[in-house]
Amino acid sequence: MAIITQDYFCPRIGMASEFRVILPETPAGTPAEAESTLFLLSPEGESGMNWITSTKIKVLCDRYRTAAVLVPCLQGCYTDMALGYPFYQSLRYVREYIRTYMRGIPVGEGDMAVAGASVGGTAALRWAIEEPELFSAAASFSGMYSPDRPAGGWFTENRLENLYGDAQNRASVRDSYMKMCRDTARENVYIFSSQDDPDADRAAEIAAAIGGGAVFRTAEGYSGWKTWSDRLADFMCMWKEGTV
């Protein structure tokens, strides 16, 4: 597997950052020219390494001649934090950086798709809706659509406040996201949530709000990396072959 780890200075947050790029290879193991690029976003607190170690991403990149860009999630959760840094803006800057300094990675309009799990899925869908000309397809797996949820697990009260603000602001973030989904004409969207995922009901509402532009899939149980790996394969098939 050919992986580039890129350290760079991000002016959007005024600090050093990094991302990884998985490059496609031929069956003989030699580098292959990427024909498209997938921005692949992680769940809360993740660096992106689980996409490499726990999914079929290498096989999918090779099969579809696609480069995968893994932008760490870590503590910022791809949000413009209420009390912190504008990490959503720093995510969007990665495309600008690649276009300027890594010209072998296709990041032109229509060359890209974006997908993610949990908060990564939330950010992926938001980015695809806000800049529809950039992405030919988008996917959200087990998206975190309820910033107004009760504190629990990784999302402690302190983290929720830092990310989304007080209770009133969290409700506003939730409502604004839903409105964005209702108002979009975005197509080629894949929404997935297992029935026991925290925001399973909200995922169905999001898909219904997007309407005919979205494909919604669900399954029994709770999602993990095996589930997301399988759904990523389904999404790549939809994006590249037009079937689900």
Could you list some keywords that capture this structure?
alpha/beta, eight-stranded mixed beta sheet, 244 residues, globular, single chain
Description:
- The model has no long low-confidence stretch (mean pLDDT 96).
- The protein has 244 residues and is of the alpha/beta class.
- It is globular, with a radius of gyration of 17 Å.
- Helix 6 packs parallel to helix 7.
- The chain has an eight-stranded mixed sheet, sandwiched between helices.
- Helices cover 38% and strands 23% of the residues.
- Strand 5, helix 4 and strand 6 form a beta-alpha-beta unit.
Largest sheet: 8 strands, mixed
State which percent range the strand residues make up: 15-25%
Mean model confidence by pLDDT: 96
The quaternary organization reads as single chain
Tell me roughly what share of residues is in helical segments: 25-40%
What's the alpha carbon Rg, rounded to whole Å?
Answer: 17 Å
List the secondary-structure elements in sequence, H or E. EEEHHEHEHEHHEHEH
Backbone structural class: alpha/beta
Extract low-pLDDT stretches. Answer: none
What's the count of strands? 8
Shape: globular
How far the N terminus sits from the C terminus, by CA atoms, comes to: 27 Å
Biggest sheet strand line-up: 1-2-4-3-5-6-7-8
What is the number of helices? 8
